[in-house]
Amino acid sequence: MSRTQQNPPDEASGWDTIKRVIPYLWSDGPRWVRIRVVLAMALLVLAKLATVATPYFFILAIDRLAPEKAGDHAGWLMGISAVGLVIGYGIVRLSTVGFTQLRDAVFARVGRRAMRRLALETFAHIHALSLRYHLERKTGGLSRIVERGVKGIEFLLRFLLFSIGPLVLELLLVGIILATVFSLSYLGVVVVTIALYILFTFKVTEYRVQIRRKMNTADTEANQKAIDSLLNFETVKYFSAEKRETARYDVSMRAYEKAALQTSYSLAFLNFGQSFIITVGLIVVMVMAAIGVQNGQLTVGEFVGVNTYMVQLVMPLNFLGSVYREIRQSLVDMGEMFALLGQPAEISDAPDAPDLQVKGGEIVFDNVVFSYEENRRILHGISLKVGAGQTVAVVGPSGSGKSTIGRLLFRFYDVTGGALCIDGQDVRAVTQESLRRQIGVVPQDAVLFNDTVGYNIGYGQAGATQVQIVEAAKAAQIHDFISKLPDGYDTMVGERGLKLSGGEKQRVGIARTLLKNPPILLLDEATSALDSETEAGILESLKAMGVGRTVITIAHRLSTVVHADLIVVLEAGRIVEQGAHEELLAKGGRYASMWQRQQADQMVA
After folding, report:
1. pTM check: above 0.70
2. Are 561 and 393 spatial neighbours (Cβ–Cβ below 8 Å)?
3. Is the Cβ–Cβ distance between 186 and 178 less than 8 Å?
4. Could you check whether 354-438+518-605 and 447-517 share the same CATH topology?
5. Could you tell me the fold of the domain covering 447-517?
6. Residue-level pLDDT at 579
7. How far apart are CA 146 and CA 224, in angstroms?
8. Cα torsion at 228, 448, 410, 415 (round to 10°)?
9. Which CATH class is domain 9-341?
């Protein structure tokens, strides 16, 4: 796949995001999800009916206290005393709160489940993406996108159901009451006010969404710079670059500050504009009601009722403004996350791909051609057979393609041409999980999780017992060291294992791979970062580890591979020599030249 194909797709649109979310509320889940959604909607309708009925009881109570001015709209309810109507008002008002809280309680599990499932889906998808993607991405920015997107899920789910629809329902109910109890002129003023309010809110909010995107970009950039700087803490110290790093961070934070200020200013303008429109509408309606009372067309209770209904409209409209802003911001945040979910996996299993079956562990590179980019070929027709149980070393200068062979073996990338087979099975035809289960690797730098020594060794086999972990540590000759630690196997190793020395980390890596017990072993520059004394001890462990396994050793130091059954010399992506150590020295070719140079360097050192 080309680099252009790896670029992230554009952020998902608002409607696309909503369509992606809806299945989590209905079709994509067990029956109880749908039952809870229906029940929550029923409670929502009851809450809105109670909300609309509350002011009506208030009107009746006031008119009951002044019966000579009461209207003829009360019907049988006017037979109830003022105290009874006030009690009824309290019951209906409490019902509104009760139904609303019960609705939230019923829906909470649905929202939390959706948030967890989408977070897990995103996390799993990130792990499914190719090595190419992870080499090009920035961890801090990626984590920020996921964090913001996940936070927006429950909010979006809740307010899609419980804000927009309920608001429309409430506006319709209040509109019907204004038209029937009062007159159409009141309804007309309210409709115009609401239309102007919504138009103003949407226009200004759309402008603010653009600012939100700038904020997100600056926030992501600042976070990834901070993470990158902290991960390279030692390098920063080596070059006394604290001020330089702070300045880099400040560039992004200034951009964030600028966008945040624009957000604050535009929010103040939005809030004032909304209040202005609502207040004008409220004044017009109240003036109309006051004239109606003076003319004897309305009662005092109805005058108060008009004010109550207008205030009741103002609350959800103000709520609409904030909710719409939050929904649009959530859609922006989630759009970035869904764009990440839309990033295709470069390497995928074929439909119904079988598991890899390893009998001996023979590995064959059959005229393998590979390019990271179309115009930059790395391997030029590599043909190599690693017999079952053999140890084959791949050596050569930097950039010759040694590490690429290991990446192809793990199928981090697919070959561009030719085939790579294990026991006659093309690695592209089997499942990635089964392939990687059969291969163990000891890299140049064993990167450890920020957890205990025992956890890092036990990572080699899911569900490993303490006894198995200890046996693996003994085989890697690190058990004695661990036993002397204050907390033994429960000792924390720190970020990337930085609390351990290079040799200690490497032995933990060896123990982890021994616990995995794979039939195929890849040693990728496993000792090149170690001093000579530590290297000698690690080499003995690695030799013991390779007994009975097919081993491919990628090495720069030739002294570490003299015992190999076959040494392959790679240069500029081509095999220029191959044979045993003594055989290659006798040829006096490229390998002999490299050997002599390294021996001379060692003597000088």
Report:
1. no
2. yes
3. yes
4. yes
5. Rossmann fold (3.40.50)
6. 92
7. 13
8. 20
9. mainly alpha
